[in-house]
Amino acid sequence: MKLQSLFALLILGVSCSTVRAQVLKDLRVKPDSVISENKQENVSLKNIRPIVPKLELEVDYWKHWTSFGVNINQAAFNDNWKGGGVGSTAVGLIANHKSDYTRDNFNFVTEIDLRYGKIKNKNQIAKKNNDRIFWDNKLSYKLSPKWALYTSLTFESQFDDGFRYKTENGRDTIDYIENAFMAPAYITESLGLEYKPSASYSIRFGTGTARQTLILDNRVKPRSAADYFREFGEYFDPKKPERGTGERFGIKEGEDFKNDLAFQITGNMDKNFTDKLNVKARYNLFANYKKLNDPSHRLDVTVTAKVSRAINVNLNGIMVYDSDVISRVQLSESLALGLVYKLPR
What we know:
This protein is mainly beta.
């Protein structure tokens, strides 16, 4: 009985498989047959151009930096003070602006540095202790990552009169004027190669350099003894009436202009050693082709330590050697605490 039942189930399974295969075979569609009786409609595609808003973006190739500040020093003693010292007041003003334009291999940099300061000691005439107008413009074309061909134009002078002083009858008095605005003034044109290994350092080799020296103030103009007497009604040196002023700033008596052709080296450094310490230095060597063995040198160094966002400590040092002025090294140093405002913040 069990054997008959098993045999029946086997026959039933085979029958179901055959029916299912037949049904699936009937449902197959030939490749060229049409399933749907409805004809396929043509579909048309329309190109759509999305509206893109115009952003009007412009590239600004300029960068600008500006800073200005004031330094004030003051000391006072009353009549009972026995520790020595002289009461004094000193005020210094500084302003600096730099603009940089860089596009492709072209670079233009203009920088102006203005400084003026005065000090007044008790029972003495107020005297300037800092005075400079410096404007440098440089256009360069990059030849390689570190070398460029450049041309530059520089202007240097001072704002105020500078005097030589003497003491007469125990009092501080003016002896004679030494310099003034545009007396002297230096205009320097230079052409050569610039080596710039990084943004903080650069050195220029000006093989073709010309410098014009001008004295446009009659009080400073070098004069002979007779010319000085005709202009001012007195002798330059009453003890030696035949003596004139002699050359001033390399310009001969009776003249107010000279032109020099020279070789020039100019080194610049502007580096932040930390976020609160900056050192800025500029060295210039000017070697007149007529006297290459006696070049002039000038080194300006400014160390700035930031105390707070608006308060800085400045250490300034200047070294000058120019035989047209004096055949000795001139040195100047100042240390001051001041307020400085910088743009951009």
